[in-house]
Amino acid sequence: MKDHRSIMLELQKTHDVIYDLLKGQPFHYTDIPMHDNIGDLLIMQGTLAFFKKKGLSPKTTSTASGFDPSWVEPGDILVFHGGGNFGDLYTNINDLREDIITRFPNNRIVMMPQTIFFSSEAKRDRSASIFRRHPDVHIFIRDRVSQGIARLFSDHVYLVPDMAHQLYPIASTGSGTGVLRIERVDVEAPQVPQSLKDLRFDTRTDWVEVIGTEKRFIDFAWRLECKFRAHRWDVLQKRLGPWYWVPMAQRFSNKAIDLFSVHDHIVTDRLHGHILSCLMDKKNTVIDNSYGKNSTYINEWTGNSDLVQLVKAEANPEAETCASPT
After folding, report:
1. What range(s) does the Polysaccharide pyruvyl transferase domain occupy (predicted)?
2. Torsion on CA atoms 127, 132, 136, 137, rounded to nearest 10
3. Which of 42, 61, 145, 177 could form a disulfide with 164 if both were Cys (CB 3.0 to 4.6 A apart)?
4. Where do the structural domains in the chain lie, given as residue ranges?
């Protein structure tokens, strides 16, 4: 085991290679998350924190659907948000990315740290053929399994941790006791290991419940984006992300930070339940998700921390298997 703080500070340094690709160049940060997954919001906030630390300022910050191709000029770099949506679990997001990549064969593409999952080799190969038509795609990957798949998509592949690590350290807003269970309720949910079934959880919830009724602010943001796009109000469309959504996302993340602060042990099957615990120097027990995203990440980056314990998930006969390269 190693000292947790030293691990976290070392992980931040690995992102300098991203700066090398962007320094001195105009770029657009697109595909930002405007939904109720706090993990994705932490990635966005970590990315923006990294830009600020490095003196980088995107020309525009937008969702994939709110991005207007007319904003792109020759020489502009297109930077896609990172996370775990590279593949066919969330096809609408990947389809939008493929469309933008196809539209701009002469502009550099940078994909921030991702995990890749395809349910079949056929779907993986179809997507890879689209990426391979572009000569300047740079893909940052969070684990070695995804790294192997990414090499089918580009010759420019880099292994780095999640961008949320740029937020370290996050201070607790109060003293904590008891066990918090952050539990997936979506397609990546695993079965709970037998070893944890008798553990008493003081609080049991998921990101959607943490945000709760404030989801109305997300719905409002989407309505604004649709209205601005329909009326071609370009200035407002460009400002929606930085002026409204980014502060609102911080509000949602603060709710999660407050919740974590009043517990001293986190049990989770969400990768960013684990990462937020690490950002706050909290003891955390991590259950693998349905296709191994958590274990591959922890084994690569945080498994040596004295605060982290990884627990193998129970076999789930309904879970699909990650398609790896042949």
Report:
1. 37-291
2. 30
3. 42
4. 4-166
pTM, rounded to two decimals: 0.92
Structure tokens at 264: 């001293």
Q: Cβ neighbours of residue 140 under 8 Å, at least 6 residues apart?
A: 18, 82, 110, 111, 112, 113, 114, 157, 158, 159, 160
CB 227 within 8 A of CB 148: no
Q: Which CATH number fits domain 4-166: 3.30.465, 3.10.450, 3.30.70, 3.40.50?
A: 3.40.50
Digits of tens for pLDDT over the chain (326 positions)?
Answer: 789 999 999 999 999 999 999 999 999 999 999 999 999 999 999 999 999 999 999 999 999 889 999 999 999 999 999 998 898 876 678 888 899 999 999 999 999 999 998 989 999 999 999 999 999 999 999 999 999 999 999 999 999 999 999 999 999 998 889 999 999 877 677 777 777 877 889 999 999 999 999 999 999 999 999 999 999 999 999 999 999 999 999 999 999 999 999 999 999 999 999 999 999 999 999 998 777 788 989 999 999 999 999 998 765 444 444 333 33
How far, in Å, CA of 155 to CA of 220, rounded?
40
How is residue 222 written in tokens?
A: 């989407």
Q: Residue 279 is encoded by which pair of tokens?
A: 């950002």
Q: How far is CA 5 from the centre of its chain?
A: 22
* Rounded-to-integer distance, Cα 162 and Cα 150, Å: 16
Rg (CA), the chain: 19
C-beta of residue 173 within 8 angstroms of C-beta of residue 259:
no
Q: Which residue has the tokens 């066919």?
A: 88
C-alpha neighbours within 13 Å on the C-beta side of residue 8: 23
**C-alpha span between 129 and 125 (Å, rounded):** 6
